[in-house]
Structure formats: C-alpha cells, structure tokens
C-alpha cells in the first residue's frame, strides 16, 4: 500500500503520512531507522 503512495503524501485509508507508515511496516522500520546501510539501496 505504501508503494503507490508518494513519500510525504497522506494515505487515503488511514490518513497517516508516509513517514508514519514506515513505523507500521516492519520491513521499512528495519531498513530506515535501525540500519543506515540499506537506505541508499532502497532509495
């Protein structure tokens, strides 16, 4: 669901910004705040 939604845009269903959605997704949570290495790979 977070894929089609652009970062910074609010989700239509929950209304949570993409950044907040990162906390909901365990994969994104591991890639973003914890390990800075996977960040350049995802971006």
Written description of the protein model:
Residues 20-34 have a biased composition (Polar residues). Residues 1-43 are annotated as: Disordered. This protein is 49% helix and 0% strand. The protein has helices spanning 18-24, 26-34, 38-42.
Q: Pairing-aware structural class of the strands and helices?
A: mainly alpha
What does the average pLDDT come to?
54
Report how far the terminal alpha carbons are from each other.
Answer: 17 Å
Q: Based on DSSP secondary structure assignment, what is the total number of beta strands?
A: 0
The major sheet is characterized as:
none
Q: Give the count of helical stretches.
A: 3
Low-confidence stretches: none
The share of residues in helices is: 40-55%
| Series of H and E elements | HHH
What share of the residues does DSSP label as strand, in percent? Answer: under 5%
Using only CA atoms, what is the Rg? 10 Å
**Which descriptor suits the 3D outline?**
elongated
List strands and helices in order, with pairings:
Layout: H1 18-24, H2 26-34, H3 38-42
Biased composition (Polar residues): 20-34
Region (Disordered): 1-43
Could you give a short description of this structure?
The chain has 43 residues and is mainly alpha-helical.
